[in-house]
Design a protein that fits this description.
Number of helices: 9
CATH topology of the largest domain: Nucleotidyltransferase, domain 5
Structural class: alpha/beta
Largest sheet: 5 strands, mixed
Strand order of the largest sheet: 3-2-1-4-7
Order of helices and strands: EEEHEEEHEHEEEHHHEHHEH
Number of domains: 2
Bound molecules: zinc ion
Distance between the termini: 15 Å
CATH architecture of the largest domain: 2-Layer Sandwich
Oligomer: single chain
CATH class of the largest domain: Alpha Beta
């Protein structure tokens, strides 16, 4: 059986793994996202060591924070583009791994599309051809599938940067996105919560008004995605959603905002199975990266 490398390249941390599927891992590590030199150097070191200890890695899959170039026909395939992350603009991530590790087959997509693929293969999106996967952590991102294919296009979806109503009387916080200020990510990311309340969200009690506001913004985002993409399921991962009070609040706010306009049983009677966390949890990203690796091997073999 082919051995794969999987990388979930996130804005806070890179999770690197070697194995075949979420339940069959040779090794796994977490590397902090600092500077490209330091972080990518540690990524290369990890896989080099695994090439010695675990054996030949036939292909690597990468799910990366965006914006990134995901078009295999572009000379900049696998590059970080104008990301808000300081120092990470215009970096040839895929090329560096190819050069340093000598692995010819590398699959590349966004972190959220990779996680979506993991959930499609092994998790809560099995058998579902139209769904979205959102992450609400340091940033907000979204991807998913239409007709069983990962969403791409001009570049890739950037669901975190949609504009949503912002009542500046109720919430005078200007927003934290360096590009758009009060876009969805600018209002509802973990980073935005920390800026607004002066402390990390995880340190706020479950009954703090921060969570109801957070659920409101996420629900506003979700109803836009429901209306535009008509997903059959919505999976939401990321650190902010690990707060137990969040899913019930988001679900009821979505129902309230839809105001019975979409009277489908999935939303009216079964919303707990319509908006739900990833089954693979934190493994979704790198597991989906294994699938990207397998696909790259098949395509390029
Ligand atoms: Zn933005």
């Amino acid at each position: 059986m082919s051995l794969f490398g999987g990388i979930e390249a996130g804005g806070t941390k890179f999770i690197c793994a070697v194995g075949t599927d979420p339940d069959n891992l040779q090794s796994q590590t977490r590397i902090s996202t600092t500077t490209p030199e330091e972080t990518l150097g540690q990524v290369v070191d990890f896989f080099r060591q695994q090439q010695v200890e675990a054996g030949e890695i036939e292909a690597i899959g990468i799910g990366a924070f965006g914006p990134v170039n995901v078009n295999p026909d572009s000379p900049k395939f696998g590059w970080f583009l104008n990301t808000p992350k300081p120092g990470w603009q215009q970096i040839d991530f895929l090329g560096l791994l190819q050069r340093e590790l000598g692995v010819p087959h590398i699959g590349f997509d966004t972190d959220v599309n990779a996680a979506a693929l993991g959930e499609y293969q092994w998790g809560n999106a099995q058998g579902i051809a139209n769904f979205i996967y959102l992450t609400v952590g340091t940033g907000v991102g979204g991807g998913g599938m239409v007709d069983g294919k990962l969403m791409h296009g001009l570049l890739h979806p950037e669901m975190g940067h949609i504009l949503i109503p912002h009542d500046v009387i109720a919430d005078p916080f200007v927003g934290a996105c360096p590009f758009h200020k009060d876009c969805l990510e600018g209002l509802a990311s973990g980073y935005a919560m920390e800026k607004r309340w002066g402390q990390p969200g995880a340190s706020l009690p479950p009954d703090h008004p921060a969570w109801a506001l957070e659920a409101h913004y996420l629900a506003l985002g979700l109803i836009n995605f429901i209306f535009t993409l008509s997903p059959e399921r919505i999976i939401i991962g990321g650190g902010v959603m690990e707060q137990k009070q969040m899913f019930p609040m988001v679900r009821s706010q979505v129902q309230a905002l839809l105001s019975h306009y979409l009277d489908v049983p999935e939303i009216v009677y079964d919303i707990d199975n319509y908006i739900l966390p990833p089954k693979l949890g934190a493994k979704a990203g790198f597991s989906g990266a294994f699938v990207l690796a397998a696909q790259a091997l098949e395509l390029q073999a």
